[in-house]
Amino acid sequence: MEGDSGRDRLEFTEYGAGDAWVVLVHGQFMGRRMHAPLARRLAAEGLHVVTLDLLGHGRSDRPADPLVYSVAAFAEQVLALLDHLGAAQAIVGGTSIGANVALETAVLAPERVRGLICEMPVLDNAVEAGILTFAPVLLAARFLPFTVTAARRLTRPVPRGIVPFWAGIALDSFDQRADALAAMVHGLLFGRLAPSSKDRRRITVPALVVGHPADPVHPAADAAMLAEELPRSTFVQARSILEWRVAPERLDRAAVGFALGCWRTTGRRRRTGA
């Protein structure tokens, strides 16, 4: 799929078929493969699921221009994907920055979004931890690019088929080019990271919000705050940051039930946890 400029190549994977669309957006530095298990589970229930590599991630193009990287630009890529697929509406879900992208998509084009799945969004309470986490990455990529190159050369030859799935996803996150990595982190750190609270309160579609305890980069307070802001949200607290990765059945059931409900009906206001 080509971006709006006609220059940027974006890759995606489809699971299932039909008109009940779900788009899943990965977290920072990761790629679409991280959502393959959830995509397969949703597709098994009759949903048409698409996982997308955002610009600068996975197998999509990786330009070295910070101006092309922002949460708003990522949301525009989700909308371009829907146009490419001929999908009038979709549930948009994401993890970490991907959750922010889902929110931004609902703000930019509310008529295109059927529902939201937001796992560990990065909002007001994550600012300090985000700077402490990603500023060193930016500095290393900009001024010590050999460190990024070395990490890539060490991890890329490891066959993903011989390591556990999530270990492979972690290895994939080291497959970076220093110039593109610096541009991406720069663009995200100095741009709008998420819609404002005022904008978030105007999102009227059903939303499933998943928060994690004891996660400083994705504070549970951010997820709880988002669930309070969204007028038609369901809040689910994960048992740990690893639950959806290593023991996904409970959260998969929540996601499946939510997605099927969005496509069966517009739904009523929901505020209960699971």
UniProtKB/TrEMBL annotation:
Keywords: Hydrolase. Residues 21-126 form the AB hydrolase-1 domain. Pfam families: Abhydrolase_1. The keyword rRNA-binding does not apply. GO terms for molecular function: hydrolase activity. Gene3D superfamilies: alpha/beta hydrolase. InterPro entries: AB_hydrolase, AB_hydrolase_1, AB_hydrolase_fold. This is Alpha/beta fold hydrolase.
